[in-house]
Amino acid sequence: MNFSWWSFALQAANFLILVWLLKRFLFKPVSAIVARRKEEIARGMAEASAEKQKALNLQRDLQAQWAGIEAARQKAIEEQGAQLAAERVKMLDEARAEAEKIRDHATTQISEERAAATQELFSRTIELAVNLAERLLRGLTFPSIEHAFLTRVLDYLDRLSATERAALVSHLGETALVVTTAHPLDAREEAQWREQLGKRIGAGGGIKFNSDPALIAGAEITLPSATLRFNWRDALTTAAREINRNEHAG
Amino acid sequence: MNHSPLQTAILFHIGIVPISRTVVTTWGLMAALTVASWIVTRNFRVDAGAWQVMIESVVAEIEEQIAALLNCDAAPFLPLLGTLFIFLVAANLCGIVPGLTAPTASIETPAALAAIVFLSVHYYGVRIQGLGAYLKGYLRPNPVMLPFNILAELTRSFSLAMRLFGNIMSEEMVVAIVVALAGLLVPIPFMAFGILVGLVQAYIFSVLSAVFIGGGIGAIEK
């Protein structure tokens, strides 16, 4: 066995050269690619983390938006509910007022109808009473009763003042005085009327006589300026009018 | 094998420098490892293929072993110790190729590697611990131990070289003797056993080198 120092030195040099070569062509590329992969993994992890964070932020934003929407919805529901309640109250008030109005109107209408019916009934009653009275009076009348009414006419004219009588007979010459009685007067009665009226109002020659059974009894003297009614029809009409007026006033 | 493994076969000379078969074989291994590394790593991508995964796994495993032995970052020691393991595997196993002789079966190669490891221990020790702290390590546990520590430094490097040389050389001699005596097929079990021995010896040499360097940098108690 021998030992070659040259071979020893060459092998040492060879190994050191191989260290450099493998470092250059094996270890560095492997380390570089591993480092690059780690870097890419780290970058991927960072990107994934960022994406996760972004997703979490987005989820948080969406949750906040959802909460806002929910709150807005709740608020809208409450506002709508309040509005509907107010509207309901308003509608109820309006309906109640309308019902009150309708009821008042109906009450008023019923009252008016009742009053009208009462009035109608009263008027009918009055009319019936007047008709009854007229029928009764018509049964009680007789032709000579006109004389009693002549007396009343004359009493009336006698109580008039001079001024009133002058006003009553004004324009008498232009138009004839008309005496309407319930029963036709005979010649004696007409003469009696003409005489008495002529004494009081000076129209003895210009008197016309008519008859109207509707007067029931009495007479109606038509002057140019007025009409003097002294008959039962007028009395009944006046009485009915008075009763109606008193009823209305009551 | 037509020469004694205990003798250095000189193939030619460059000037006054004799070039032995061991050196030429080493050059061939260097060229093969370098070209293979360049071919494999030139198309490295982030999304690795099968070959790339295998290469990366080997390198990563070596780095993890170094880190586990040294209890520190393996990156500064990876080129030396990684190259040492890969070269030893290639050198130990190339003996099974007909016509080739394992470079580690010649005493010069293990001696050169052991010398480099010996120097690396001091280089890394001084570089990482500082000269004073590193030299103080030889006085522990007691200054009386200084001669023994120095002797241990020398003998462990010597034993490192001799262990590798003895195992590989004896394995090659056994195979050569069996081939000479029993013919072609009989040596195959011995050659398979030689593969195992070559891998184990590469591993042992690399691990012991890492342990020595770890002791030098203070990461491992001497």
The quaternary state of the protein chains shown equals heterodimer
Helix fraction of chain A? over 70%
How many structural domains in the coordinates of chain B? Answer: 1
What's the number of helices of chain A? 5
What does this structure look like?
- The complex is a heterodimer of chains A (250) and B (222).
- With 250 residues, chain A is α+β, with helices and mostly antiparallel strands.
- Chain A contains 5 helices and 4 strands.
- Chain A has helices at residues 5-140, 145-159, 162-169, 187-201, 232-249; strands spanning 177-181, 207-211, 218-222, 227-231.
- A 4-stranded mixed beta sheet of chain A has the order 2-1-3-4.
- Chain B has one domain (10-217).
- Chain B contains 7 helices and 2 strands, in the order ββααααααα.
- Chain B starts with 9 loop residues before the first strand and ends in a 5-residue tail after the last helix.
- In chain B, 36% of the residues are buried.
- Classes of the chains: A alpha+beta (250), B mainly alpha (222).
- At the A-B interface, helix 1 of A face strand 2, helix 1, helix 2, helix 3 and helix 4 of B.
Topology:
The complex is a heterodimer of chains A (250) and B (222).
Chain A: H1 5-140, H2 145-159, H3 162-169, E1 177-181, H4 187-201, E2 207-211, E3 218-222, E4 227-231, H5 232-249
Parallel strand pairs in A: 1-2
Antiparallel strand pairs in A: 1-3, 3-4
Chain B: E1 10-14, E2 17-20, H1 21-41, H2 50-70, H3 78-93, H4 108-129, H5 131-136, H6 146-182, H7 187-217
Short description:
The complex is a heterodimer of chains A (250) and B (222). Chain A has 250 residues and is α+β, with helices and mostly antiparallel strands.
